[in-house]
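Sample entry (167 residues):
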Amino acid sequence: MAYFINFFKVISSILFVSLFGREIYAQSVDLKANAQDNLPKDDFLKERDKQAEDIKIGQFSENSLPALLPASKVVIQGLDKITGRVFTIETHVGKSIDFGRLKIIAHRCYKAPPEEIPEAIVDVDIYEKTTSSGEEVLIFKNKMYASSPAVSALDHPVYDIWIKDCF
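Predicted structure, serialized as tokens:
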């Protein structure tokens, strides 16, 4: 009998939290935030929305963004998934590279200064040559970040392309 009562208590508390917990939690979070800032609720919400809008617009102070230095050479790595080979290619900015059926063009390359956290950012266009008509189709036009290749690399059925460094 005690087992049944404990089971009932657990089930009823889970049901109560799932039905009313979000609203109670949201109210408590808003009250705590308002108490910390000593602002009325409307002023607090306006200030929070203003900060979010500033972030969306990109109004950051000059000290919040690292200074990036332009670079003239790019180091690109590519993986041919068919053969399993990894290729490292060094090229100048603005020059096109042929990698299998891909044509890679690095338009701009920026590198963080030595005293900052290491980072290289490259604006890249990647075209694929179609086999039927021979024309080039744009398949990737974006920035690639050397510090996070899994997020910004080209993931192609045959090739993977990512940036290693700028100099």
